[in-house]
Every structure is written in C-alpha cells, then in structure tokens.
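Predict structure. Input: Tetratricopeptide repeat protein, 149 residues.
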Amino acid sequence: MRERDLYGVMVLAVVGVSAFCVVGWGTRLANELAGVGAFVLAAITAAPVVAKWWGGSKPFASSRGKPGIESDEEREKRYRRGIEAGDAWAMYLLGILRKQQGNLDEAERWIRKAADAGLVNAMLNLSVMAERRGDTAQAREWMRKAADS
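Output follows.
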C-alpha cells in the first residue's frame, strides 16, 4: 500500500465514516476527483452536524435554484449566528460555503479558525487543501494534529 493510500485510510479512520458513506459518497466524487482526495472529501462532507443554531435539517448543499433547499444567503445567516455563539462547526461550514463559492482565501481562514478551536474535520480539510496546493509538509502536519485530537 502506497503512502498516499495509507493517508486516505487514516483520514477515514479519524473521521469514523462508515463503509456505506465512503462507497456512496466516494464513488460519486471519485468520478470528479482523482485519488484519495475524493475519499477525504467524502469523509469531511459526510460528517454529522449537530448544533443549537442549526435550526432544522435543511441540507448544507448549495441550492443552485432548486425549490425547498435554502439559499447560500440563508446558510450564511445561519452560520453567522453560530459563529456569534462561538460554534466551531459554524466557522467550518462558512469556510466550506466560501470554498464552494470559489473564495479559497476566505474559506481557508474560516476553516483554520474552526481547526484552531479543535474541530478535527476542519484539520482534515486543511490537510486536503494543503495537499492540493502541493504543500505535503503542511498537509502532514494538519493530518497529525487531527490524529492527535
């Protein structure tokens, strides 16, 4: 098994994603993304989000004009309420929203705040972001922090 494969297995073990989630999300994402990164993203995306500010079970996927799914503006308002309450998940999810919108600098800033608050999913996401930039040393550092948390 290559080091890159071990990296992916470690991510899945740290996040604790079931085989069903990995296959269900990973297969779909693997068609769009190459290598272990798809499974890392699947593990991060499939993580449960439970917080007082959540306000229901609306999905946090971008609405893309589909009825019944909240808009990016609604999501941001909800996340900002959580951030005001000091919730690391809200920081993380605002970072994910910014990432989906293509604002990678702001995305990394919010995800880093969540990681600094101890959120393992944020640490894993920062590891993936660093790897995609080609900064393997930083990717390993975030992975170690996640594993140690």
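Confidence is low (pLDDT under 50) at residues 1-7, 13-67.
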